[in-house]
Amino acid sequence: MAQKVNPNKEHFSAYGSSMSYASPDAKTGAASPQCLANQMIEDNDEFTIVTDQKWEDSDGYTRPGTVAHKGFSGAMKLFFFEVQMPLTGKTSPDNQCGPDCPALWALNHRIPFTQQYGNCSCWPDCGELDIFETLDSGNNRMKATFHGINSGGHSDYFERPTEKTMKAAVLFDATFNSVYILVLDDNVDFGPSIPSSTVDQWVSSGQNDAQSFVDYKLPQHPT
User: Fold this and answer.
1) Nearest to 172 by CA among 205, 212, 108, 215
2) CA distances from 55 to 64, 104, 182 (A)
3) How many CB atoms lie within 10 A of CB 114?
4) Mean per-residue pLDDT for 140-149?
5) What pTM does this model have?
């Protein structure tokens, strides 16, 4: 399910922008859940992928009347993505990240209900994983970075898929306290289930190819 941040509709200094369901083109809000259209998301448009489970009062504060759904919980989880990031040719005046600067992030789901960089936010201690992020307009290199109690980046990069789609998997593995980011072969089928032996093989083979693999050791939170 896709949700949309509405910066121009309702904004509070402590709790940030309001949330709504996303329209099919991810440009505006919608009154009910919608399927995203099979089209390119334009520069500077953003949306959030969440579960269909409604946020409960015991999960923490949300603005009354806002659209609030839970994120993806669990210490062991596997996400699959198939993305294409074509060049748009647009640039920002200061050559910083703006148009033509796509990114795929994973955030603690408390963050969308507050102002991310404000005093009421749990960021960065509660975690942010930049899975694929271009750092300036038109860049063909995508970096992976972890923000948290102990933040860190990686010297390697992924090639931005400008001409065709790229399949990828992100594995959060509590057994080894790690996150694995893997670029997969084009012929991988995202079926209803994936055997654990297949995932183990991806991790094992990916460790030999820096262009298709990043392994992050997650920091232990102090008690």
Assistant:
1) 215
2) 12, 23, 31
3) 21
4) 89
5) 0.86
